[in-house]
Structures
1.
Amino acid sequence: MFRNQYDTDVTVWSPEGRLLQVEYAMESVKQGSACVGLRSDTTCVLGALKRSVSELSSHQKKLLEIDDHIACGIAGLTADARSLAKYMQTECLNHKYVYGTPIPPHQLMADLADKHQRTTQIYVRRPFGVGLLISSVDSRGVPHLYQTCPSGNLYEFYASAIGARSQSARTYLEKHYETFATCSTDQLIVHALQALAGCVSGDDELTVDNGSIAIVGKDQSFTLIEGDALKPYIDQLEQKADNDDEEGEEEKESEAMET
Amino acid sequence: MLPAAVPSRQHTVQPMVTGTSVLGIVYDKGVLLAADTLLSYGSMAKAQNIPRLHAVEKTVIGASGEYSDFQRILEILKAKALEETTTSVMDSLYTEESGMTAENTWNYLRMLLYSRRSKFNPFWNELLVAGKDLKGKPFLGSVDKIGTTVRDNFIATGFGAYLAMPLLREKWRPDLTEGEARALLEDCMKILFFRDCRASPRIQLAKCADDEVLVSEPYELDTAAAWQAEAYRQSVGELEDDGGW
C-alpha cells in the first residue's frame, strides 16, 4: 500500500471514497496469528494459534472468556483486544445485575459494532487494530459466531478465520462447513485444529503449546482447552498427516515397482 | 443576616396521592392480580375509578403507594419496551426471540428502586410484577421502595399484608384453578374493603396465563350481604341506660 496525502487522519476521505486509516487498521489484523471459529447446531468452537516472541517467552493468550456463554478470539493488537474484552465483560456483568439474565449476544454485538464505528468518525481517536471472533450461545441454546473488524462492520458466520495465513483455514472451512451442523463437540475441535494447522508458518507444527481451543454451547459454559488437555485432539491431527504420508509412500512403492 | 439558601432539589419525604393494597396469586396455569381503583389524598377519596394494574408487553405491574411515582415507572418501562422493538439489530442467521419477561422486568425494577433509595429519593411504591419467569413458568414478585425483592406464590402489599395474607396462606394450593383463585382474591378484596379505611369495593383484576395478558375493566364487589351481619343489626350489650355516659 502506498502512502499518500489522504491517509493521515481517520476523518479524511480518499478520492476513491475510502477511509485509508481504517484500511491500514485492517492490515494490522492480518499481521496477528491465526484464529478460527466454527459452529454446529449446539456448540461454537474457537481455535487460536498462540505466538511466542522468543523461545524464552510464554505463548500469547488469544482466547478470552467474556461470560459463561460468550468467548472471544483475537487477532491483531493485543492491547486493543484486551480493552475491548474488558468492555464486553463489563457490559455482560451490568446486564446480569440489572436484568437478572445473561446478555443476549446480538445485543452485545450491536453495542460492540457501534463502539468500533465511533472510532472511525472522531478526529481524536484511532480505529481498534484488532479483529475479533466471538462465539456465543443465546437464551434458546442456539450458538452464534460473530466477526468484528476495525471498520465497525459486524458479520455472523457459520465458520470463519482471521489473521496471518488464515486463507488456508478459510479454504478448509469452506470445504467442510456443510458437515458442521451435526458434528459432535470433539469433531468440531478436530476440524478447528485441522484448519489452524494450515496456518502455522514454515516448518512449525501445531502443538499443545501453541494451540488453544475455547468452547461455548447449549448447556456448556465457557471451557478453555490448552496444554496437555489438547493432546488427544492434536494426536488425531497427526494421524491424518501420518495417513497422508503413508499413502504417499505406497504410491512411491507402486511407482517403483512399475518401472 | 443573610437568609438561608433554599435547596432547589427536594427528596421525597412522604407520599401524597396513594393507592392501597395490591394482591397477587399464582394458580395452576398463571398469575392473577387484584387491586381496587381508589386513589386517596390522605383521608380524602380523591379519585374512584383509577386503574392501578397496568400491562407492559407480557408483564402486568400493580402498584400501591404514591401514584405519580407509579406513572413515572410505567413511562420508563414503556420507553424500554419501545426501544426493544424499534432498535434495529443486525439480522441474525436465526431469528432471536427477544423481549423482557416479567422476571427481567422485576430485576430491572429492583435496580431502579434500589438506586433511587440509595440517593434518599425513593419511588414511594410497593410493586407487584406478574407474568412469566425466565424458564416460562408463572412468575409473581414484589419490589418495595427500598429495593427489597420477594418472589412467592402469593403476595399482598400495603394493608393486604396484614389482612389478606393470612387468608391467602390458609387457602393457597399449587393446583388452584382460575375460578378458585379469583374467588379467593375477591374474598380478600372484600375483607380489605371492610377493614382498610383507604379501600373501596370497586376493583380490577389482571391475568397472565399461557401467552395472554388481560387487564379487566373495574367492577363493583357485591358487599350488600355483608351489611346484614348480625353485629350490625343487634348490639350485644349496653352500659347502663345512658351508655355509661
2.
Amino acid sequence: MADHGDWRPPRPCEAYRAEWKLCRSARHFLHHYYVHGERPACEQWRRDLASCREWEEHRSAEAQRSLCESERARVQAARKHTLVWALRQSPPADWHLPLPQEEKDQ
Amino acid sequence: MAGAPAESGPGAAAGEQLPQQHVACQVFPERLAQGNPKQGFLSSFFTNNQKCQLMLLKTLETNPYVKLLLDAMKHSGCAVNKERHFSCEDCDGNVSGGFDASTSQIVLCQNNIGNQAHMNRVVTHELIHAFDHCRAHVHWFTDVRHLACSEVRAANLSGDCSLVNEIFRLHFGLKQHHQTCVRDRAILSILAVRNISKEVARKAVDDVFESCFNDHEPFGRIPHNKTYARYAHRDFQNRDRYYSNI
C-alpha cells in the first residue's frame, strides 16, 4: 500500500456512490439473479463510500487502510482462477501487417 | 474467411450465430426466413455493404462496449484500424461474423446483420476474440479448449446472453439461466467453425468454463447493459490511479 503524503482513494468517492446505487437497484438484482442465482451483496460498496468520505473530510488512516484492504480483496477475487492460456509479452507481430496480396487483389 | 466457407481452410477462428438460429454448422446452408432481424430505414436506399459500413462506423464511434475494447486493445499494442481490421462480406449460412486470426481481421456478414443493435453485439463479440488474440497466446486452430474459452468469454460479455435476447429466442429461464445460455452459445459457435462432434465441443466448454466465465477482462465485470459498460470504461480509464493507490 502506498503510504506517503500523496495517497488518495483508488476511486473518486462519486464512483463508490454510483456503484453502491447501481448495486442496490432493482435492475441489478434481476441481472445478478439471472447470472448467479442469488441476490447481490452491496454492503461493501456502502462501507467503501463511507471510508472514502471519512478520508476526504478527516484524512483518516483507518479509512485509508479499510479502502486499500477492500480494493485488494476485489483484485484478488478477480484473479483467483488460473488462466487457460499464457499471456503475451508483446502483441502479435502480424497485427499491423497489410493483408495478404490475394485479398488486396480481389 | 474472405468468402470461403469457415471449415474449408484456416478461415474463421471463431464465429457468432444469428440470435434465432439453432442450425450451428455451415455445411447446412439453409436459411430460415424468420431468422433475419427486422430491416430498418437503410434497406431501401443502400446496398448491404454500404449498410454494413455505416452501422459499423456508428458502432465504433458510439457503443460503450466497443469503445472500451478498442481502448484496451490500443493499450495492449493492437490499435484497431477500421479499414485493415474489419471486412463486410457476404457469408454462407447463418453466421453473423467471425474473427480470422490468420489475417487479424474481423469479418462481418453483411447479408446477416440487419440492424444497429445486432451490429453492436456482433462487433463486441468479435472484438473480444481479437482482444484475446492480442493479449494471449491463443491456439485457435490446435487447441479446442482455447477456442472454447474465448467463445465462453464472448458469449458472457457481449450481451449475447442477456435476458432480453434469450426471451426473443424463446428460451425462458431466470435463475442462473445466463450460464446455461453462455455454455450453449459457446458450443454452437465452436461447431460453426470446427468440424468436431457436439460432445467434444461440450467437453471443451465444460473443462474451461469455471476459469473463462470468471475472466471478465477488459470489463472487470459482466456488462449487462450500456450503463455497466460505461462504468467499466470509466474504471479502465482510471486504472493508473487505482493500481497506484491500493
3.
Amino acid sequence: MDMALPVVNATAAVFARVSAAFNAPLARAVVFGVHIDGHLVVEGLLIAVIVFQLSRKSYKPPKKPLTEKEIDELCDEWEPEPLCPPIKEGARIDTPMLESAAGPHTIVDGKEVVNFASANYLGLIGNEKIIDSCIGSLEKYGVGSCGPRGFYGTIDVHLDCESKIANFLGTPDSILYSYGISTIFSVIPAFCKKGDIIVADEGVHWAVQNGLHLSRSTVVYFKHNDMASLASTLEKLTRGNKRAEKIRRYIVVESIYQNSGQIAPLDEIVRLKEKYRFRVILEESHSFGVLGKSGRGLAEHYGVPIEKIDIITAGMGNALATDGGFCSGSVRVVDHQRLSSSGYVFSASLPPYLASAAVSAVNYLEENPSVLANLRSNIALLHKKLSDTPGLEISSHVLSPIVFLKLNKSTGSPTTDLDLLETIADKVLKEDSVFIVTSKKSNLDRCKLPLGIRLFVSAGHTESDISRLSSSLKRVSASVLSDY
Amino acid sequence: MVRLPYTTALTTLFSYGLLFAFGQLRDFFRKFVDWFKAKNIKGYAPICLGLEDFYVRRLYLRIQDCFGRPIASAPDSWFDVVERTSNDNNKTLQCTSNTTRCLNLGSYNYLGFAAADEYCTPRVIESLKKYSASTCSVRVDGGTTKLHAELEELAARFVGKPAAILFGMGYVTNSAIIPCLIGKGGLIISDSLNHNSIVNGARGSGATVRVFQHNSPAHLEEVLREQIAGGQPRTHRPWKKIIVIVEGIYSMEGELCKLPEIIAVCKKYKAYTYLDEAHSIGAVGQSGRGVCELLGVDPADVDIMMGTFTKSFGSCGGYIAASKEIIQHLKQSCPAHLYATSMSPPAVQQVISAIKVILGEDGSNRGAQKLARIRENSNFFRSELKKMGFEVLGDNDSPVMPIMLYNPAKIPAFSRECLRQKVAVVTVAFPATPLLLARARICISASHTREDLMKALDVISRVGDLVGIKYFPAEPPKIAEADHDKLE
C-alpha cells in the first residue's frame, strides 16, 4: 500500500503531462493556417514510419540451389524399391504343359485329357487342309516376314487374307494385324485422341482398357451389358454439349465378353448410336466364326446391316485357329490405320503361314456351315447338363461358346473364391482327366466382374466328352463346396 | 550424330515449304469443290479434322509407291517385288500380276534365316503337324507346350541370364511389360530416340517419363542427379524406383548404344537398366549374343534384357530375360502372358532351331560362318559407301546403315531409280525421323554374297550421282590399304 501510492502518483503525473502535451497548442507552430497540435506530430511520425517500411524490400529467403555435395548425399541416401515384389507364399506358378495339339483331346503332363481350355470353337486345330496350306506357305516364304508392312513386309498372302475377310464379312476393306490383342489397343488410339468422348462397357478386357488409356480421351463406363445405363450415359453426355461437330464420340463394346460370357444386344446399341450420333467400335474376337447363320458374327446374328457398324476388330486366335487379328470397316477407316495405327506401322507383319491358315479357315467355314450347328448343339447340351451343378451356376448367355460358371454364394473375399475354384479345376483334371481352367486376372486389370470357371466349347467335342465333364464337375464341386 | 550443312538445310526447308504451300492451296480449292457436293454423314465429326492428316494427304500420298511394296516370295537376299500401277496420280495403287526380281536391301534378315532353311524348315513342319498352327489359348490356360518351355530355357541360356519369358509379338512385349515393373510414383528415363513400343509402354504404366539426350551418359547422369535430388514432381517425395531404358542398336541411326558407360552411371545411382536388343541380338557379337558380348558388358549387370525373334531368327515374337524372381512375378501379373494367345508353335520351333544353328549345336559350323559373314559384309559395305562420298551413319559392326538424303524430292527419286535398276531399298522420312533428316536405310544380311554387294554398290553409286547425295568428297580410288584403315 505504501509503495503503491507513489507509483500511482507518478503514473498519474506522467499521464497528465502527456495529455497536456497532446492538447496544448504549440503557439509558434501555425503552418498554412493549421494549428499543429501535439497529436499531429505523432501521426506524422507514424506516417513516416509506414512509408519507410513500405519502401523497404520484403524479406525473401534467398533461393539456394542444392550444392553438388548435397546432391551427392541425397543420391547416396536414396534407396529404391526392389524391381519386383516378393513372391507370395503358396502362389501357383506352374502351368499345365501340353504335349500335343490343343484339340478336343490332348495330352497334358503325360496324361490324355478332354480339353475344355482352348478356344478352338470350330474344331479347326489339326484340320488337314489348313495344315497343308501352312506347309505350302512355309516352304515358299519361310516362317517370319522380316519387316514391317511399310518396308517389304507386305507379302501377297497378307493382301489375299485381307480381301478374303472383307468379302466374307461384307465390308469394303480390312487390315491385318500381327497379334490378337495388339489389334484393339492399336485401333482405339488411332481413332480416339485427346478431347474425344468414349463410352465403354465396364466389363471389357485388359487389351481394350489399355487402348482406352493410351488414347487419352475422356472415358465413361456404363454398367456391364445394361442398355438402360448406356442410354442414360449417352443422354447425359450429349445434353450439355453444343460443340458436337468437332468432338468424335465412340461406343466401345465387345460382342461376347471374355470376362462374363454375356452377349451385347447389338440392335439396341445401333438404335442408340443412331439417335445420339456415336460411332461403334465392336470387338468380335469370340463371336467371329461363331454367331450368325453362317458365322459372320454379331451383326448377322441380330440381322443388323454391316454398314451400320463403323469399326469391327477381332483376334483370329479363337475360331479361326491361327494367330493375328484384323480390323474391318469402310475404306476411310481402314486407310487411316495404315499410317497411324502403331501396332501396324511399328511392328513386323504377320508370319505368312498364319495368314494362309486364316484364308483356309475362312474357306472351310464357307464350305461347311454345318460345323456351326455342331457347336450350337454342344453348347446347348452343356447348358442342360450343368444346370443342376451343386454350388455353381451358369452366368453366361445361352449362345455363348464361353460357358462361365461362378459360385452360387461367394465366400466374401475374391482370393478365397479363386482358391476354391482352382481347387475344383485341379481335382477335375487329376481325378477325371478333364482339363478346365479358371479365369485369370492381372493386377493391372481394372475390371470388377467376378471370377469363375471358364469352359470353351468346341464343335469337335462329342457328347461323351460333355457328359464326362458334367459328371466330373458335379462330383467335385459337391465335395469341395459342401462346407460352404 | 548428323552434321547438317547449312546449304542443305536451307534447300530442304525450302522444298518442304513449297510442298506445304502447294498442299494448302489444294486444300483451299478442295473446300470449294466439297461445298457443292453433299456431305455424306451429318452430325458425325470426321475421322481426321483439318490439319491432322495434312501430311498424309498432301505429302505422303505423292510418294506412296515408295512404301509398302508387296512381295511375292520369301524376303531372302533376292526376292520378287510386285509391280503396282495407279490411275489417279498415286492416290490409290493396284497390284498387277507382274513381279520384278530385285536385290533385297530392306528386310531385317541379318543371319539369313528368312527363307526356307535346310535345318530349320523340316523341324518346323514337323512341329506344325504335331502341334498345329496355333494353340488357341493363353499361356496360363492351355497354351504352354513343351516347345515354349524349351525355348524359354534356351533363350535364357543364349543371352546369359537365369530365366526368360516368351511373348508372341515384340511390340506387345515392351508395351505390356513396362507397366508390370513400374507404376505411379516411379520414374522412367528413356533415350530420346527410343522405339514407339517403349514409348507406349512407358505411357501406359503411369510413371513419370523423362528423356535424356541420345546416347549421352553425361546427360543421363545429369538427369539422374537432378531427379533423385528433386524427387516426385510437386510432392518432392522420393521416387519409388527408377528404370533407364536404352536400345542395343538404334534402328534409324545404326548406332550402338554406349552400354558400359551407361551401366556404370546407373549402378552409381542405383537405377535399374532395361536393354532392348531388338536389332542386335543374334546380329552382333562374336557368337551372336548381342551388344553385351560386343562391348564386353556382363549380362548380370543389366537388370532386364528384352529382344525380339523377328530380325535375326527369321520368326516372330519377343522375350524378356532377367532373374528368376522377376520372371516369376511377370508370369503372374503380366497381361500379355495372362490374356494373349500363346506364340504359334511352329514359330517357336523356328527360333529353337535357329539358336541351335547359331550356337553350333546342330553339328555344323554354319552359325559361326553366318556370324562372320554378316560382320564382314557390314564392314565392307559401310567402308565402300564412305569411300564413294555418301554420308553414312552408324558404327562399325552394325548391320544397319542409313544413307542421308535430306531433301524430300530425293526420297522418291532414290527409291524409284534403285527399283528400276533392280535394287530394293527402304527410304524413311518424317515422322519416323526428324523432318529435315530423311534417309535411306540399308540392312545387310549374312545371305548376301560378295557379288550381290558389288552390284548393290554399283547401282547405289550411279543413282547417288544422278540424285546428288554424295555430300562428302569421294576418295580417289587408288588408295593404299594402310591409309584406308587410318581413315575409318
